[in-house]
Amino acid sequence: MKKTVMVILAVMMLLPVMVFAGGQQxxxxxxxxxxxxxxxxxxxxxxxMLDSALDEAAKDVDEFHFVIKxxxxxxxxxxxxxxxKEDAYDMIICLPGNGTLMTPICEDIYDxxxxxIIVDRPIDSDKYTxxxxxxxxxxxxxxxxxxxxxxxxxxxxxxxxxYVGIPIDLDRYNGFADVIKKDYPGIxxxxxxxGQFNQDAGLNAMSNILPAYDKIDAVYCQDDEAAxxxxxxxxxxxxxxxxxxxxxxxxxxxxxxxxxxNPIFGASMSYWPTMGGRALALGKSIFRGESFEKINHDPTxxxxxxxxxxxxxxxx
Length: 316
Fold this sequence. Notes:
This protein is an alpha/beta fold. The chain has nine helices and 13 strands.
């Protein structure tokens, strides 16, 4: 364990990053009990998010006791959140794997009088104490402006979405599609597929798209890892019609391509997974009676080969 602290971490994940384990411990009177629920740490973003949360949980142990759990899937996260609610924690912090599926249990938690912070991926409700995340709609809009301007307002494009239909996917998609429809009517979205949040899904989705379309001018990927996979598929197919691909997030793999001047990767719409630690810090400040906003959006950046050097330290 990083430090001898009152942090219990039961990590149950598909692809382990760090595993810390501990049993139930007695909590001193006056110490606030905060439970944290994350989805599977099966990509670089979630791994960095977990590290950030662990770092913050190791602080202020005389005031706060944390339990942090990564679920193996949506059903497991639902069970974890239900258990947290039944155990009557003082606060629950949740990054929902699927915001729609987790909405009912999150509403139940809030209605039970437990403080609730939602991180990164929104739910379909305003029943929470605070939300901390990137502005996914704005990032989608930024991607549309970058793509529309670079294509000169004309072209055929593909979109690799991120678990189609969940709230974060809809924000990233609608932010992009609304700007394309309004400001770039000459750009046609000819095909969509699901790149999820990983390279394998991006590679598979793009590998299926390419044989079906003779010309694709650009690809909007709603995740950097999916974008890296899509670029691999384009390079493997020897396709020269694809002028560029955009990503989303700020991964080390994506920033490496930008730094190397990869001719296909154009830009990443970025915000950082360090919000995991900031969510825990926000929870602490709420218990200390400090003022806070209900909705808190991290700043977003369009990262290209020209400015990627400014952001390497934030990549995951």
